[in-house]
Amino acid sequence: MQTTLDLYTYEIITKQQLDLIQKAADCLARSFIGVDVSGKWVQEPMVGQLNIGYEDFYKFTKDYLESTIEQGYCAVAQDRNHNVVGVLAGDTNAPEIIGEDIFEGSFYDMNVILRVLEDVDKRFMEDYKKRNGKEIKDGELLHLFMLGVTAEHNRHEIIQQLGNSLITKASSQGLKAVLGEATNPKSIRVMEKYHNMKKYKDVEGNYIVHKYQDNSKLSGIPSNIADGTYILIKDL
After folding, report:
1. How far apart are CA 219 and CA 97, in angstroms?
2. Which InterPro entries match (predicted)?
């Protein structure tokens, strides 16, 4: 019997690997926009609700990878034909709150997603400061920003291998925790199950969550698909 390690190879990519960066950006963009997995449509709920197009999202993803790749936290899974079928991309930057619209034209609605992420990040940063008496600095946390899998088979194993490689590296480099914004229950379940990440509770014991039903642009997302974006964390 073949194991998933026989079917896929894994590596953390570098800025010299331009072809792999493009393939990784494509894999992420396609998985967020939506892919057919064995007859089932899988997509990121906010991207689907806002009807964001592939070209814009690909450019956004590629720009992100190019700006963070040298930090060494973009892992890819490739099949035997060297297609990138899974990507987990992160960075060690402290969360940044821009607080204004930065996307325009056909990509304008990406500002809605940006504001959701900034809302939960800001509340997390405020809570972090309350707990620790200081601001988060660059290089303290691994921020897992984008996860995309286009493979039809062994999807969970791919997520597990990608996450293991980045979390092991973060731990070996002395980072304090792994942080992510999970935008749907599937992401939460997978990160809880395979990487022992947990929904973050603030000092009052409340989850940090941006509820879609309270957002006029996102209230059309059915609550059985996703109810909000949560902060997930794992101490290292």
Report:
1. 23
2. Acyl_CoA_acyltransferase
Q: What is the pLDDT of residues 182-210, one digit of tens each?
A: 999 988 999 999 999 999 999 999 999 99
Closest Cα partner for 88 from 64, 120, 117, 121?
64
Q: Which domain holds residue 34?
A: 4-235
Bridge-based pairing state of the strands 40-42 and 74-78: unpaired
> Tokens in use for 174?
């002395």
What is the enclosing helix (H) or strand (E) of 230?
Answer: strand 228-235
CA distances 125 to 97, 119, 141, Å, are 10, 10, 12
Beta strand pairing status for 177-182 and 209-211?
unpaired
Gap between the Cα atoms of 53 and 39, Å rounded: 21
Alpha carbon dihedral 109, 86, 120, 236, in 10-degree steps, equals -160
Which whole-number Å values give the CA distances from 117 to 3, 17, 84, 171, in the listed order? 36, 29, 26, 25
Report the pLDDT value the prediction gives residue 4, as an integer from 0 to 100.
55
Cβ(83)–Cβ(43) below 8 Å: no
Q: What is the pLDDT of residues 115-148, one digit of tens each?
A: 999 999 999 999 999 999 999 999 999 999 999 9
CB 170 within 8 A of CB 229: no
pLDDT in tens, 207-224: 999 999 999 999 999 999
Number of domains in the chain: 1
User: Angle at Cα 119 formed by Cα 62 and Cα 121, nearest 5°?
Assistant: 65
What CATH number is associated with residue 97? 3.40.630.30
